[in-house]
Amino acid sequence: MSMSAALGRTLRHPSFRMAAIDMAGTSLGIAAWGLVTGVAMVKSGMSVGMAVFMSLLVYAGSAQLAVIPLLAVGGPLWVVWLTAACVNLRFVIFSSLWRSYFQHLPRRKRIVLGYFSGDVIFVAFMKRFPQPVPEPSQTPYFWGAATVNWLGWQVPSVVGILLANT
Questions:
Q1: pLDDT, block means (10 residues), the chain with 166 residues
Q2: Is the pTM of the predicted complex or chain greater than 0.90?
Q3: Is residue 66 packed enough to be buried (19+ CB in 10 Å), middle (13-18) or exposed (0-12)?
């Protein structure tokens, strides 16, 4: 099956839509957090390009806000990395719990899932699938939640970056 066919099947899956609906309410809070983080990055002295790059690469609001002051004062890179790692240790717990749901997927796909995972996605997913038994609807549900969460973060973050720059 081609990648575009698999993507189309995921987007049309009822669990994808269910997750998007489940995430709709929390996306407003995610959006506010993204907007504030985007503004904070530029107001700390970060260039627009670097702020957009950081938002896309790091995709972790708590870690971004924790390291912005360190970057602004020229803190050592090892301190920046260690701070971000400590703030994101909860993702180790998330990944250990998600393992039984997604271990059947190839490593490459699990790495991509890891990038798009987030606190709110984890809560919604575990609420919907409390038993760690793989089901065909779990991956589309994850992608529905992740799509809403990612867009709910990235769009306002970039808007905040651009507004802070003006």
A1: 68 90 94 95 94 90 89 93 90 89 93 91 95 90 96 96 94
A2: no
A3: middle
